[in-house]
Write a structure and sequence with these properties.
The structure is a homodimer. By secondary structure, chain A is of the alpha+beta class. Chain A has five helices and ten strands, in the order βαββαβββαβββααβ. Chain A is 24% helix and 29% strand.
């Protein structure tokens, strides 16, 4: 059975997240429905990362097996014709049998956008706040994150993960006018990790926590220690590396 | 009666446009409703430009008269608390009695965005097409528009305008990856003018009309001659000058 790799973008606003759920509209559900309709077979799509409800993806990757050889260009066109307008498929290619969107991935990149000017047009794609944010503190916190750490303090409780170690290669803030953007790349991410990191960094940068505390939280391996979780709508999965 | 100048942004997606209409949700209607509720008086808001249904504004200006002196900062906060999330008020100041958002304006600027890569996240804020667009032809057309011209050929019929002369100071395209952005500034605009200009320029740039025709259309003073109107969702009012 040919194994197909699909790259797609979605607007997370009206989804319960990537993953199929009994109740609610998921990206995986919409994708599998469209594929079933086109290919007339049961399809299970494996995503590289399970984005939460409201989280966007500029580039998500999925793979699925099809019963027989397909014309990739044709399938891509058919998919985009059937998918709802908040999901777009970009690329589709046949890959080796053992390729798995999630397990074969060697890196994921996320971006988180904080906007300090109220906005009507971008309201669903940022966290709007007017805190007095110290940019230097944000950057110091971001630098602490680089390297191999146990990120248990920044992992949502209630998940079934036992391994909390992640290797972070990129972690930095950029500022353009009233817009603060955090970019992070790691081999893997824990559940809720980016939002907890951003929420905690912003608490430090607005003076609600001393700067030293960020390192202490990172070393504590205890989720109770971290700050608030930044809202889902500011988060974008931007790249999956293989 | 104090005269108040208000600067606001809106996402035009779910509006019938700026102007109050009997049926449908207008920006003016939402603004007047919120002001009435706060100030407990009838309010008539005058906008600098009547954006069409689906057209966005990064910066629209309105003015209105209030019965007595107000605390501007307080009114701005109250407004943003009452306005729906697709309208945001930025600035509010008292201006001389004779200031009129529309008649006092000396320039308006618009931006039009064409996106050639399908997008889920930006789908409501651009015109997506995959035409093979010749960038040089776009730029040549844009240059033709600069100066004082009769723009009747690019004015939607059925409006009550008799003066078709506009003085264009800025008219240029910029390209970033798959995104083409047209920026135009003029003392005034005719109904549907930017969308007709963009639609016609794109027809030339994709080879559907010879380049000479653009100048001929501009000189023809006849709306029947221009090309298609580019979709509303790619258009942004970006600045009103006084």
């Amino acid at each position: 059975m040919p194994n197909i790799k699909l790259t797609l973008e979605y607007d997370g606003t009206d989804f319960v997240g990537w993953q199929l759920q009994e109740n609610g509209r998921s990206v995986q559900g919409e994708l599998e429905k469209a594929l079933r309709q086109i290919l007339q077979q049961e399809i299970r799509a494996h995503g590289a990362g399970r984005t939460d409800s409201g989280v966007h993806a500029r580039e998500q990757v999925a793979n699925f097996y099809v019963a027989e050889k397909i014309d990739g260009g044709l399938l891509l066109k058919a998919l985009n014709a059937l998918l709802p307008e908040d999901v777009v498929a970009f690329e589709l290619e046949e890959v080796p049998d053992n390729f798995h969107a999630r397990f074969s991935a060697t890196s994921r990149s996320y971006e988180y956008v904080v906007e300090q000017r109220p906005t009507a047009i971008g309201r669903k794609y940022c966290w709007f706040n007017t805190y007095a944010i110290d940019r230097i503190l944000l950057e110091h916190c971001a630098a602490e994150v680089i390297g191999i750490h146990n990120f248990r303090s920044f992992c949502k409780t209630g998940n079934d993960s036992h391994d909390f170690e992640c290797s972070v290669s990129v972690s930095s803030w950029s500022v353009e006018g009233t817009r603060f953007a955090y970019r992070i790349t790691a081999n893997r991410f824990l559940y809720g990790m980016v939002r907890a990191l951003v929420g905690t960094m912003v608490e430090v940068a607005r003076g609600h926590r001393p700067y030293d505390e960020f390192r202490r939280i990172l070393l504590a391996n205890d989720r109770g220690k971290a700050g608030m979780s930044a809202p889902a709508q500011g988060l974008f999965l931007t790249k999956v590396g293989y």
